[in-house]
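Weekly modeling sync, notes
Attendees: S.R. (lead), two postdocs, one rotation student

Agenda item 3: backlog of single-chain predictions. S.R. asked that every request posted to the team notebook include the full sequence so nobody has to chase files. The rotation student volunteered to paste the first one in as an example of the format we agreed on. Action items at the bottom.

Example entry:
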Amino acid sequence: MAFTPWRLRVAAVLVALLAWAGLVVLAPAAFHQADERATDLVWQLQADPAAERRVIVVDVDDASVARIGPWPWPRQTQAQLVDKLREYGVALQMHDLVYADSRPGTADLARALANGQASAPAVVAQVFALNDESRQTSGQLAGALPGQACMPPAAPARGYVANADLPGIPAGHITPRIDPDGTVRKVPAIVCYDQRNYPTLAIAGLLALDTAGTATPLRAEPGQGPWDPAWMVTLGAMPGLRIPLDTHGDIRVPYLKARSAITSIPAADVLQGRVERPELLKGAWVLIGASAFGLGDTVPTAQGGAVSGVEVHAQLLTAMLDQNIPFTPRAALTVQLGWALAAALALLALSWTRPVVMRRADGRRASSRVLWIPLASLALALGGFALHAGALVFQGWWLGWSHAALAIAFIGLSLGLAEHARSLAEQGRLFRNLSSYLPASVAEKIAMVEPTGEIEAERREVTVVVADVRNFSAYCEARSPEDAARVLHRFYTTASAIVASYGGAVEEMVGDSLIAVFNGSRPCADHTMQAIDAARELWLRCSEELPNVPPQGLEPLALGVGVESGIALLGSFGPAQRRVHSVLGQVVTVAIRLQDLTEELACPVLIGAHAAERIGVPFERTELVLKPLGSFLLPGLRHSSKVFTLRSLMQPGGDAERQSLRYLKQQSQPLA
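Predicted structure, as returned to the notebook:
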């Protein structure tokens, strides 16, 4: 089966998808982290710097610890903080603190928290251990939702740390989901322990505002449409508030507010009555937390590596008020697959476009598709990130992008490599075709430079061998073209192999003759000797392969070979649109005339004077001993020159000697 371009491209896409699937199976956490860190970047780039006034943080910061005393403060001091906040007129207190141990003054704290629950409720925190982190239990759990069965989206807990001696005080959990990189990006909306459901602190605060006591304070229902979340939580007292959850029942924390936008008031200022702008607290929802160094309430978030945990709840509450909590729609996977499919089709379409041939730095040609397909895949992968970011900012949809982006990148890379391989294969095929018409070294040189209309040639000392099939024109008249083509093909094939074996290169094949050059495109140290060796074998082998039974009335086919050494001009000539590679010079003319003379002298191989002079005499190899035939005035030349042949190819008293004597008498030239 031929590996056609479309099959190559389809195979490239399949290989890319297999590689992508392997990574999905082997490293799923890497995709998750890529998606989450990309989301962190979106939060950082578009965080709103406008000051938030609805949710205020009262912070046990370093300055407060320095002024009030080391943490933990006495329970009476904490009770004073609760009372002071009510005096300032806050509407809701949410303590991001767990009062886990019973201490002196706990009763005062319980009283302060209980007072005013109807008008300005206070909610405290509790922590659960998820995923078998711990089975330790401490304190008394509070704030359970009605019912004795775990809700479907609730996260199961194995242990807890709750408040001690604070009966009847509403509570909400502050248990985060910790990603593998340690960052808090999600919070379980509901935690189930011992078949009871406990909401997170933000939801518990909202439920505490329901003073009427709704029978079903919280409802969790699965999403129905493709753009719905996996679960949707609604509150009975706030029917317009909808809190989307993912398949694990987690709320994605939207870091929509810049850290500088969150209003923070030192707890010491509240205790000492030094709040500069007390109007900020009136009617506000207040989160009480601790950011002082050494208190251990700092977590990594999308906005920083050491952020107070209370800021997570502040971001979550603000987003709830704005109805702007992001979620993963049920169609998110379909969107990713659709984007990947559309990008793959675009890349395939690009791979089928007509390529623009470019020149690389090393002079070789390359298809533009080799470069543009990977670049296009990178652009499409980044387009997936843009789609993810746009959907998150404008629609609140968390789609993810890393799976589609990697698949697109792999497809682009694979198609680029396939195109590169195809381009190399085409270049190789073109080069092989070119080198079948030209010497390989010449073909390589031509393939690496732009065509030019200038002469590109060099002078070199070479030995030229010209071989011609005599009587071939008459043979063609008496035979079919197919028969003549077979004879000529056999001659060219055998002669080319012989020339190459002796280090030469066939420069031209014209009609029934060829011109070979030694020390031309392929350097030869002893090029004359190698040329004469090649000439001798040409006559011996090609003569055997030529048809020995000529058509009736015709002379048999015979081979004549002329050999001469000298300076020649070797290179390319002609216009840029139609170049020819050739060898020029008197040495070529002499070799051609010597070949023509072989028929007159009945010598199959004739060697010129310069070639004979280069090899010298006497000669150790008897088969290459030269026999002088005399001096001849070759057609087209002004001066006569000596002509030699190989003694091993002449029989004493044979036709060759008689023919040469007869020719010499006709030319009136004495024998040498």
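Discussion: group reviewed the output briefly. The two ends are 67 Å apart (CA to CA).
Action items: rotation student to repeat for the remaining queue; S.R. to check formatting next week.
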